[in-house]
Structure of HPLN1 protein:
Amino acid sequence: GVVFPYSPRLGRYNLNFHEAQRACLDQDSVIASFDQLYDAWRSGLDWCNAGWLSDGSVQYPITKPREPCGGKNTVPGVRNYGFWDKDRSRYDVFCFTSNFNGRFYYLIHPTKLTYDEAVQACLKDGAQIAKVGQIFAAWKLLGYDRCDAGWLADGSVRYPISRPRKRCSPNEAAVRFVGFPDKKHKLYGVYCFRAYN
């Protein structure tokens, strides 16, 4: 499976524990366990924002120590903020997915699309607009690689690169995050997901 950090459109550190659980479910995944995050860190996950884990703790994985992430002179590892109030404390979340039962694809379309047009284009193609968990699963489990930014169900725009190259993701294989653009702008394509029945 694959662990991925998630924060909503509102920006970082906006989810209490219960909202974090729901956010992962909404993206076709579950909130990650410590063991899953630890395995992801050992595989190279480096993320400087603290996120909820399934045991209610708040942690983050660092492979390249640097000033804003615990200091330059610290050792790599999973940084632990400890346990926080599940109702009042707000962080990002680490989600986990290993579930991939369908076809994930970039929809070839003659024009760039607004968010609403993207949703409709996938429906017209017999699919649904893809979720964040689905783009991470396709990237990690299937080696999906596409240098085209596309809308996803949560209103974010991302693209998956498994073969780093100039102009796409020069230094690392990653799901690149473009942001949460204004949904009315016709600037992007769309990633769709068709479940196998």
Q: What stands out?
A: Residues 105 and 192 are 5 Å apart (CA to CA). The mean pLDDT is 95.
